[in-house]
Amino acid sequence: MTSAFATRDGSKWMPQYLTAIDGTTCIGCGRCFKVCSRDVMHLYGVDDAGEILGPCNDDDDDDFDGELNRMIMVVDHEGRCVGCGACARVCPKNCQTHVAADKITA
User: Fold this and answer.
1) Residue 67 to residue 48: CA distance in whole angstroms
2) Are 50 and 43 in contact (CB under 8 A)?
3) Is-contact 97 74, C-beta < 8 A?
4) Residue range(s) defining the domain that contains residue 95
5) Out of 24, 30, 40, 54, which residue is the most buried by the measure of CB atoms under 10 Å away?
6) Dist CA 20 CA 68 (whole Å)
7) What is the longest distance spanned by two Cα atoms in the chain?
8) Is residue 10 part of a domain?
9) β-strands 52-55, 96-100: how paired?
10) pTM
11) Bridge partners, residue 72, by sequence
12) How many structural domains are present in the chain?
């Protein structure tokens, strides 16, 4: 299949869009968040049972009424992803799922 995507110099390139992060593997280090310029993912709190409690905000020290066990990254704006792959390159746990642009349905 021919790629409809190209770099500035005309080289063929296929974006790999972030579609999911495995919450059981993610350690919530935030490296992916720091390199993402598109605000695709955010840190969420998780309780002892593995249930996602909600987004963690830097503004407050909310520990979700003592329920917070750990934090993980969650893809909450996947439509903003441009497929650059920076997040995958910095992830120490390889917990992200990326799908090639030609495999994504609109």
Assistant:
1) 7
2) no
3) no
4) 16-103
5) 40
6) 22
7) 53
8) no
9) unpaired
10) 0.86
11) 44
12) 1
Percent of the chain with pLDDT over 90: 82
Summarize pLDDT for 29-77 with one digit per residue, the tens: 999 999 999 999 999 999 999 999 999 886 655 678 889 999 999 999 9
DSSP state of 85: -
Two structure tokens written together for 6: 């190209």
CA 47 to chain centre: 20
Residue range 79-103, pLDDT digits in tens: 999 999 999 999 999 999 999 999 9
Does the pLDDT of residue 2 top 60, yes or no? no
Backbone torsion region of residue 64, taken as left when φ is above 0, otherwise alpha when ψ lies between -120 and 50, otherwise beta: left
Q: Does residue 68 sit within a domain? A: yes
Q: What was the pLDDT predicted at 21?
A: 98
Domain harbouring 51, CATH code: 3.30.70.20
Record the tokens describing residue 78, joined without a space. 């996947």
Q: What is the rounded CA–CA span in Å between residue 94 and residue 20?
A: 11
Task: Give the integer Cα–Cα distance in Å for 101 and 99.
Answer: 6
pLDDT reported for residue 60 = 58
